[in-house]
Amino acid sequence: MKKDKNWQVYIIQTDTGKFYTGITTDIDRRFNEHRKNKGAKYFRLEKPRNIVFIQTCNNRSEATKRELEIKRFSRNEKLKLIKNSKINCKLYY
């Protein structure tokens, strides 16, 4: 049986301080796509600044469920999640 790729749930903070949550198998590629306005229409008005949260999941299904859960969080819940994250996320400009 073929092993599923590692999927990641991520949160990007925009220049205006808003949060965008998504999933990918390649966080660097996906962030660069967002910077070039490819993919999510959200970034046509909001410019991505940096990745503030990454969580690795076992498969796409798990990542999608977690993404939906995080999208339902209030801003304060997202801030708490980011603060309690034990990873060092990359800073992009």
What does this structure look like?
- This protein has helices at residues 27-35, 60-71, 75-84; strands at 7-14, 19-24, 48-57.
- The protein has 93 residues and is of the alpha+beta class.
- The protein starts with 6 loop residues before the first strand and ends in a 9-residue tail after the last helix.
- The protein has a single domain (7-84), classed as GIY-YIG endonuclease (3-Layer(aba) Sandwich), CATH 3.40.1440.10.
- Strand 1 (7-14) and strand 2 (19-24) form a beta hairpin.
- The chain has a three-stranded antiparallel beta sheet with strand order 2-1-3, with helices on both faces.
- The mean pLDDT is 87.
Please outline the helices and strands:
Elements: E1 7-14, E2 19-24, H1 27-35, E3 48-57, H2 60-71, H3 75-84
Antiparallel strand pairs: 1-2, 1-3
CATH class type: Alpha Beta
Q: What is the annotated CATH architecture?
A: 3-Layer(aba) Sandwich
CATH topology: GIY-YIG endonuclease
The helix/strand series, from N terminus to C terminus, equals EEHEHH
Compute the number of structural domains: 1
Strand order of the largest sheet: 2-1-3
Helix content: 25-40%
Integer average pLDDT: 87
Features:
alpha+beta
Could you give a quick summary of the protein structure above?
With 93 residues, this protein is an alpha+beta fold. 33% of the residues lie in helices and 26% in strands.
